[in-house]
Amino acid sequence: MSLPDPAELITLRAAAALLRVSHPTIRRWISQRRLSEYRVGASPRVDRREVRGLIVLVSPRQEMQR
């Protein structure tokens, strides 16, 4: 497994804001191994690409038909 690009690592709070969930939710997902945690110094970070991978399409947008 290769390390992510350091420019793609974001804070847990930034990840929470991106996904519109709470900071504890991000922590829980890390402990459940849904997200990988990296350290930059003493600061925990997650890979932005991995976070974006948690965004899923629920249903396609349909144009209104008249």
Automatic annotation (TrEMBL):
Please name the InterPro entries in this protein's record. DNA-bd_dom_put_sf, HTH_17, SinI_DNA-bd
Origin: domain of life: Bacteria
What one GO molecular function would you report for this record?
DNA binding
Identify the SUPFAM superfamilies for this entry.
Putative DNA-binding domain (SSF46955)
Q: Where is the Helix-turn-helix domain?
A: 10-52
List the residue ranges forming a coiled coil, or say none: none
Which species does the entry assign this protein to?
Nocardia tenerifensis
Protein's name according to its UniProt entry: Excisionase family DNA binding protein
NCBIfam families found in the cross-reference section: excise
